[in-house]
Amino acid sequence: MARPALACAPMTIAPPILPVDAPPPWLVQAVGATVPIEGPWLPLEGGRSNRVWRAGDLAVKLYDPTSATPLFPNDPAAEAFALQSLTSLPLAPSFVSSGAGWLAYRYQPGASWRQDPAAVARLLGELHGLGPLPGLRSLPVGPQQIGQQARSFAIAGLPPMPKLSDPGPVRPTIVHGDAVPGNIVVTPQGLRLIDWQCPGNGDPVDDLALFLSPAMQLLYRGAPLSLAEREAFLAAYPCRATVARYVLLAPLLHWRIAAHCAFRAARGDAGYGAAIQLELG
């Protein structure tokens, strides 16, 4: 006597388990549709906002829209525009392609900056000497606008915001907007600025303050600059008027960075709480 047929549940195939640091398949497909990729995708370290891989001779960035803050907007369109505009200059990586939420540029071989602040001062001076880049956002300029921005995201518990007199009109120029050690790469051809997701036209003192920031140096390099390193940076920056304006605005510029650190710490981001008091000096 034949046995009755057994009812079989439909077979399902579990999707492959990808390593945590592996790029999502849709990203590999999207980038590969615009430019040939040779070699494996290797995760790169350094960024605190987005995920980045090296794929052949490319660096591919996948943006995290939730990481944007009032001080650092993390704008993929702005980064693509800046890289396309600067691609012929030895300041930034060469733009390759971009898509929804991602960007590919030529990989910059080298290590994150750790020493020789005078070289960074010369690099930023070269950038700021280009003048404004039409199409970028306008950054807050002067004590009133900077103060309004800082108050918009300040967290309770900070000391009162410094009140400063206006040092006078500023000729806007392109500002990187995130000139921290992790975004400065020491390559065989010299220093290069990466991570252009926060650029704008404004006062170059913004870049000076971010590079000199004790909090940002701690977070990205492990220790603030020494007094001698700070002095070497300011002495090497080519525009003395900008240096003088930075010195006048420094208490407010660094208060704004401390407010940013408080904003990140309130969201649970590691390391920022310890950096607040360091920034306030």
TrEMBL record:
Lineage of the organism: Bacteria, Pseudomonadati, Pseudomonadota, Alphaproteobacteria, Rhodobacterales
Domain called Aminoglycoside phosphotransferase: residue spans: 42-241
InterPro entries tied to this protein: Aminoglycoside_PTrfase, Kinase-like_dom_sf
Pfam families: APH
Protein name, per record: Aminoglycoside phosphotransferase domain-containing protein
Organism of derivation: Gemmobacter lanyuensis
